[in-house]
Amino acid sequence: MLVSTSSTSGIAEGVGRQRDYWVTVYKRTWKGTAISSFVAPLFYVVAMGVLLGGFIEGDPDKLEGATSYLAFLVPGLIAAHAMQTAVGETTYPVMSLIKWDRVYDSMLATPLCTRDLVLGTLGFVTFRVASTCAVFMLVVAPFGIYQTWWGALLAYAAQVLVGTAFGSLVYALTSRLESPEGFGLLFRLGVFPLFLFSGAFFPIDNLGEVGAWVARLTPLWHGVNLSRMLILDQVDWSWAAVNAAVLLGLTALGLRWSLTGLERRMVR
Amino acid sequence: MPDTDLTGDLMIEARGLRKRFGDFEAVRGIDVAVRRGEAFGFLGPNGAGKSSTMRMIAAVSPVSGGELRILGRDPATEGPAIRGRLGVCPQEDTLDIELNVFDNLFIYGRYFGIPAADVRERAAELLEFVQLTEKAKVKVEELSGGMKRRLTIARSLINRPDLLLLDEPTTGLDPQARHLLWDKLFRLKQTGVTLVITTHYMDEAEQLCDRLVVMDKGVIVAEGSPLGLIQQHSTREVTELRFGVADEGESHEGHAEKVADLGERVEVLPDRLLVYSEDGDEVVAKVHERGLEPVAVLVRRSTLEDVFLHLTGRTLVD
Predict the structure, then answer these.
(1) Mean pLDDT of A172-185
(2) Residue B10 pLDDT
(3) Which CATH number does the domain B235-301 belong to among 3.30.70, 3.30.1490, 3.40.50, 3.40.390?
(4) Which of B56, B60, B91 to mutate to probe the A interface, most A CBs <10 Å?
(5) Cβ separation of B76 and A101 shorter than 8 Å?
(6) Which residues of A touch B160 (CB under 8 A)?
(7) What confidence tier does A7 reach under pLDDT thresholds 50, 70, 90?
(8) Residue ranges of the domains in chain B?
(9) Beta bridge partners of B139
(10) What interface predicted TM-score (ipTM) does this complex get?
(11) Of A185, A263, B55, B235, which cross-links B276 as Cys (Cβ 3.0–4.6 Å)?
(12) Band of pLDDT at residue A8, cut at 50, 70 and 90
């Protein structure tokens, strides 16, 4: 009942009308997020990449083509960081929009539709992921890991895709949750294991044959692998195509579920 | 009497309107017509179906059955266009408490696609109107309940709506804040804005509404002007009698039989008796003549509360 027009100009108009809201939200929170998105990667890179990595032999045969553990770690770590940022922005903040601050209720009293709200919010989440990954990429640039400039740029695009995939999937989940209790489960049984076992910290071959294939089925691995191949200039283009297709497919699926989820939740 | 144009165009037209939530039917087939410039009320207790009706009229809740036209349009296909011409003041504040007063108005106005410069100008006017100009830069969470309600009303006016929907506008406010709000709404009405109000306060309905429907359990049980409803469904005066609880071991029911013939009818409430008659003082005199000694006596005019009690056998506010 809430769809006014299916034209692209209608969508752009609906999303554009929320711009001032999101700008205001960002102005209020950017200091905190800017510091964390600058400091957190630096700590990770120094502690794990440099200090812990100092104990690890830089053997390209064992590290998927990386000449140092730092070079192995960074591309995957940024992809994992993209996932965490996206999940962080689509769990409690989205539940607040739906249920606690009820910003969505006030938006839906205006000509905006649920579709506009989903796209506006996920647009902001994508911006948050893109800006935090950009900071991360710039912070680690002086370490001399990036083999080619175009590889680094494409890797950055892959990291943003990780953000859109996880952002839209978790948004779809949040739109269906009545209470935040499910988030604890999501973090403990979803995000945390993915963070540790999707190949960001060690080559998934170390998991054994079966373990490696399980890891390849997880969404984060596709982002980690794509980001790493591109940054290290070790691209297997058929794998790259699979990785990109999976991330794009998950984004499309998540978007669809988000649209149906919010419509069912808000339009009663 | 209110000056309503009976041939004027219909802002809201509902026929056999229904709203179901699973097995529960909140609105069970109501007919409503609201004309331009009118102040129209839905009066009823909590759970009567007022808010469900209001959400359908606000074009945010799909109709389960019957017909509904708002501003001549169908909410199923023209929701955004309808909402663009409505002002909505929801039952619970949906203000953004993290933002300041001015930004709440500005951002909300932008959702309507109104140019930024126009929204700024309009927001300043509205803050003046609801007497919050000095609070423009204050965070909403620091405002009192009455101020928040006034801000919500200001926000609902940002798009210069043709139709203003107010769901329980003064619930939870202290008397002073309520009167201030009523004054604002009365001024709006005078400028020609059509108001639709839900309330479970009979004094609010009497103050603000030209015409109202009394709702109970999802249906309309009476319709008319506040005065008309009182004349039709109640007597001119009401005598309230309260007897001591331990008085001869008798309940209020027992006393009711002794005074039943003194008025047109008698209602028994847990704590008092209501005797309906044209002359309340005469009832009091006769009660004393019969040797009955109530601990408290009050003679008053009939209100919409009495209408509701008569129609449903229950009070509005439990």
Answers:
(1) 96
(2) 93
(3) 3.30.70
(4) B60
(5) no
(6) none
(7) low
(8) 10-231, 235-301
(9) B100
(10) 0.89
(11) B235
(12) low
